[in-house]
Amino acid sequence: MDAFLLQILNGLDKGSAYALIALGLTLIFGTLGVVNFAHGALFMIGAFCAVTLQRLFTLSFETIDPTRTDFLGNPMKVKTPYIESWFGPDIGAAIIDWSVPLAVLFSIPIMLGIGYAMERGLIKHFYKRPHADQILVTFGLAIVLQEVVKYFFGANPIQTPAPAALRGSVDLGQMIGFQANAIIYPIWRLVYFFFAAGVIAAVFAFLQFTTFGMVVRAGMADRETVGLLGINIDRRFTIMFGIAAAVAGLAGVMYGPLNPPNYHMGMDFLVLSFVVVVVGGMGSLPGAVLAGFLLGVLESFASTTWATTTIPGINQIIIYLVAIIILLTRPRGLMGRKGVMED
Amino acid sequence: MTKTTVTRRGVLKSGATAGAGLALPTIFTASSAAAYMNEPTGGTVTLGFNVPQTGPYADEGADELRAYELAVEHLNGGGDGGMMNTFSSKALQGNGILGKKVQFVTGDTQTKSDAARASAKSMIEKDGAIMITGGSSSGVAIAVQGLCQEAGVIFMAGLTHSNDTTGKDKKANGFRHFFNAYMSGAALAPVLAAQYGTDRKAYHLTADYTWGWTQEESIKAATEALGWQTVNTVKTPLAATDFSSYIAPVLNSGADVLILNHYGGNMVNSLTNAVQFGLRDKMVNGKHFEIVVPLYSRLMAKGAGENVKGILGSTNWHWSLQDDASKAFVKSFGTKYGFPPSQAAHTVYCQTLLYADACERAGTFNPCGVAQALEGFEFDGLGNGKTLYRAADHQCFKDVLVVRGKENPTSEFDLLEVVEVTPAGQVTYPPDHPMFSGGMLGTCNAGA
């Protein structure tokens, strides 16, 4: 039972990242009709926003400590972050410690800007082209973006630790009446799940309860009529592209403490996220979220020893297996609408 | 009267045939005038450095390339000479190899077997490389070693740790300086027993490819021989990025040691996840839970950050060693690049010097002559103490370092501390050891 609950938690956690990325993909597809293969790269750039902020906070000046020597036997250069000299060592260290949560604020304008620039600068020229062209150009863009990141940050993973107070794990089992030490779960993974849930709720609320959201939903349903009413729907869709980029970026920022970011982390998520979108139903926002969590949980269970000994290799194919079954039984995906990608 | 009919179609056909014939790769049809593949004729000799310049191991590849450039500089008489000054063989004079100036070409393995073979092939065919060296993966090393054997050039392996490279996939033209999975197990096991006792239950997570399998087999055999029990061994896909669903079952498995047979990004993530799940603070079976990373790399330890603290593993070489050779190498490399070399840089620097030295001693670049000079060669002064290039399998036998993630690093490079230097005798195995059986060295191929 405890192992079962642990895998549910793990699944929800993986599902959080899938759902956030898939939500952004669906927003873009639903509004602009573009299949954005650069979406994984946006997730990666989000994670590197956290890395960048960490680097900015730890920008240091060097002093020479004659009492110690470096690896070549020369007097050692000691680095002190500017931030510690400005605000004092305690506050400075605390700011550096909290760099990942602070990067959430830092990344939102950056990601909105990148999304806006990407749509206006490149993708808008491909609206009237076939989907294959859109896929090729966005995939190419993804490669360019990851190579740029690699150029500046290298190929190795970079640690972006969670704040000290949120590292480590909690005994969830004990809280809900299990034995001590039965269900121990990392705090940051819980934070990630609740953060993702919050972002998803915020996006839905934005679309549901604001005038802007209402117009966007109307545009998704019938772009032409909304345009005839004299509403500049393109501009709103461009802003939605920025929001979708920000959602992917936020997913990336908060993901850093779970697994250290590297330049190809976006590609690792990209294919899975597309499967999530297809399983959820092209263009369906609730479908993307539901499928994200569903596939996350299934993937977790498929990685258990029980599953891999019963069906060897199941952990590697489960996602695709489920996708095949769902598409055979529900060709439009779990919550797909009629008419999307069917013309 | 005879009439010769030359048709347009006929000309095109024969032209195409002749063209195709000329365009055939010369790799397997080297001119019989040369005594061996890519025999250097002018005043220079070309070495082919095949390292990952893109892909997940690009940073290790970049460090290898720095070491190669340093080695070439030293061979040509530049710089401070580095480990050429401490090397026990004095055949190298700093005037290139056999009087020919050393130049090099580079290829990008991308840490993919097919890409690595293609770049090696191109360096041999187009650039006339006499020797191929480098790499940061066993899958790649085995693939390129096979190619070099067919092509008739020497392959001096870079960072490859699978038993198979000098085991079932060994080749007469291939040589490995780096240690292997068996050696890691043999060196680590006594230290693990001394530190954690002989009554332990181990759980293995293993990267699902050639290196992972041989690493798991080796460390499992070595720890079981000490009395440890193996609770479970779980293979994880090489492409896995999040290991939470593999770590969670460890919590309630009854195991009190987790052995991560992972390298690179896999290692960084699985270790980070294991620490997140509080494994290091756990008490199981009345003992403190421990994590072991059999193959350490400082570059990767950096990626895992604070999570490596106190965790035991093994490594081929570390810059903090205090013998004259290591100090000379660190000084030479550190002065040129501003930071200490990695173990990948060290092993490829050694391989380049060893190759050059073998050419000098053999008096030829002929791969068969060079191979003969390397076989059974005993040397010292390259940072690992007395070393033997064993003739039977082309594996170097030398001391192995058992290291631990440092609790209080004094700099960003000071991540590992040497716990023990395991003597070569303790990690030596017979050539017909079951973990290395199945392949034949075969005969040397000079290509011509």
Summary, kept brief:
Chain B: Belongs to the leucine-binding protein family. Chain A has helices at residues 2-32, 39-57, 82-87, 89-97, 99-121, 131-153, 172-175, 187-209, 211-221, 223-228, 233-255, 265-280, 285-302, 305-310, 314-329; strands at 60-69, 75-81, 169-171, 184-186. The radius of gyration of chain A is 22 Å and the shape is globular.
Low-confidence stretches of chain B: 21-32
CATH-derived topology of chain A: ABC transporter involved in vitamin B12 uptake, BtuC
Question: Radius of gyration of chain B over alpha carbons?
Answer: 24 Å
Roughly how much helix do the residues of chain B carry, as a percent range? 25-40%
Secondary-structure element series of chain B:
HEHEHEHEEHEHEHEHEEEHEHHHEEEEEH
Report the total helices of chain B.
13
Subcellular location (chain A): Cell membrane
Protein name (chain A): Branched-chain amino acid ABC transporter permease
Organism (chain A): Pseudodonghicola flavimaris
Main location (chain A): membrane
